[in-house]
Design goal:
nine-stranded antiparallel beta sheet, single chain, Potassium Channel Kv1.1, Chain A, three-stranded mixed beta sheet, 3 domains, Serine Threonine Protein Phosphatase 5, Tetratricopeptide repeat
């Protein structure tokens, strides 16, 4: 331990010595122009420090870029680089060069904090950003990426993920928009994606969605599990397309669009349109919400969807993609695949089969139609009964959180309807209850317990004695199963699906 202490002490002294370079104005040999042509400022710096700490400045000061004037300074022009001089001055320059602080008086203590952070990183090799606001951290992240300061980008990304999760949840679209522009921020993008999948309606309603990269929208629509009604997916795609098509806007009357406008819009959204599950939209919703925009996509596709719902057989010219799993709790195909396996094999007591069941989404033998979704704080028996009674076999899935903030999933399959008749005759049907964790894209500890006869009570799965999941008490879930005795957790979200066996070619 003494050796570690001595090393840290020595490193701190070394950093302190390097910081003294900032007081040596006679050693400055770089002038940096920042801003745009209308408003720009110039700052002085040390080339040896900039070369060492930033790949961008190393290239900028190379023989190919750097030009040394008669007065002895290298000149670096950052005008037009997307770094406003105010941000460079307040968020970068005051962090790097303390000498300029003599000529400015900043009333805000946050500027001093930022100044110490970046100054310490460039010259002293240590960081202190804990007291910065999240917006300031994101500004630092963007600027550090532009200047190719990779280690600082990595540090800020880790710090945001570790300390700012609640803010990322609240402002997720803004963070994602920035993170997608920085190739090194893969973990931050992954975290934001988890929030998008949990709150997709919030995401597609955000202003940032309209400016998301085309490839990112493609990746989102390629998902077979997405917690949106398909008509909402279509509306989001059209809004994105209009926003990214010159000459038209979201406030336009569609009838005013020219042929060129429509052709450009079509070219922008053609790949996105091909990923929408039109054939699984409710017919009335399709006619009302999609019909008026048939000029944007092939009219024959509209005719095919109408025929699909009105004729038993006809010749398809379009591929019919499988019904998307409309869930904000389930994330990956492993979950519906495993649940489908348990439904398809009523004789098995196996929690997890030896071989992965149903290796692709379209091989899953059941469709899951969302009939009810709510947050735990909104869970009410009357509304649940209105939407979940007389639906046939159902699958319920519940996301919970305990006192340790750990998240888990509980649920159950019921082979017959919840209904007044079945409740009065004490018929609960068979099925199973289950649970698992989902962490870091891995399905953990799945368990399943068979139920020969569910208790006939509403909002209750299990036999009421040996194994049950009880969600009749508002936000509180009670469970007794798989070694858990009188487990109590807080319901974050609940979904109920009508389970329909897919038609097969042989009938």
């Amino acid at each position: 331990m003494p050796e570690i202490y001595d090393t840290v002490k020595s490193f701190k002294q070394l950093s302190s010595d390097f910081l003294k370079i900032l007081d040596q104005e006679e050693t400055f040999d770089v002038i940096i122009h920042v801003g745009d042509e209308a408003t720009s400022e110039s700052f002085k710096a040390h080339s040896i420090i900039l070369r060492t700490r930033s790949e961008y400045f190393r290239a900028a000061l190379s023989a190919a870029w750097g030009k040394k004037k008669v007065d002895g300074y290298f000149v670096i022009d950052l005008r037009g680089m997307g770094i406003p001089h105010t941000i460079f001055e307040h968020v970068l320059f005051n962090l790097i060069f303390c000498w300029r602080m003599r000529f400015y008086s900043f009333p805000s203590s946050s500027i001093n904090i930022i100044y110490l952070s970046f100054q310490s990183y460039i010259y002293g090799a240590y960081l202190k950003v804990e007291k910065l606001g999240v917006s300031e951290k994101l500004q630092l992240l963007v600027a550090a990426d532009i200047l190719m300061m990779d280690s600082f980008v990595d540090y800020l990304e880790s710090e945001l993920i570790r300390d700012e999760k609640s803010w990322i949840n609240e402002k997720n679209s803004e963070v994602l928009f920035i993170a997608l522009q920085i190739s090194r921020c893969k973990e931050l993008v992954s975290l934001c994606n988890d929030v998008v999948l949990r709150h997709p309606k919030v995401f597609v309603s955000s202003k940032e969605f309209l400016f998301m990269p085309h490839d990112y929208i493609i990746g989102l629509l390629e998902r077979d599990i997405l917690g949106l009604d398909e008509v909402d997916v279509f509306a989001a795609v059209i809004m994105w397309g209009i926003n990214n098509t010159p000459g038209i806007s979201l406030t336009d009357d569609f009838s005013t669009w020219t042929t060129d406008n429509i052709t450009t819009l079509q070219s922008n959204v053609i790949q996105l349109i091909s990923l929408i599950r039109f054939f699984h939209m409710p017919p009335e919703d399709f006619k009302k919400k999609v019909g008026p925009l048939t000029r944007v996509f092939a009219p024959e596709l509209y005719d095919q969807v109408i025929e699909y719902h009105s004729k038993a057989q006809f010749q398809f010219i379009y591929d019919i993609l499988p019904l998307r799993f409309n869930s904000t709790i389930i994330k990956e195909k492993e979950e519906p695949a495993l649940i489908s396996y348990w439904i398809s094999h009523p004789e098995t007591e196996c929690d997890l089969p030896e071989h992965p069941p149903f290796t692709s989404f379209d091989k899953i033998p059941y469709d899951f139609h969302l009939i009810f979704r709510c947050h735990g704080s909104e869970l009410a028996e009357a509304k649940w009964r209105d939407l979940c009674y007389n639906q046939g076999p159902t699958m319920t899935i519940i996301r919970t959180k305990n006192q340790n903030e750990d998240e888990a999933v509980f649920g159950g399959y019921k082979s017959i309807s919840w209904s007044t008749e079945n409740r009065n005759t004490h018929i609960g049907g068979d099925g199973f209850i289950f649970g698992y964790l989902w962490q870091q894209r891995k399905l953990l500890l799945p368990w399943m317990l068979r139920v020969n006869n569910h208790l006939d009570a509403d909002m209750f799965l299990g036999d009421g004695v040996e194994a049950f999941i009880d969600f009749r008490h508002g936000e509180k879930l009670l469970a007794h199963a798989n070694g858990f005795e009188d487990l109590e957790e807080t319901i974050e979200e609940l979904e109920v699906f009508r389970v329909v066996k897919k038609a097969t070619d042989d009938g």
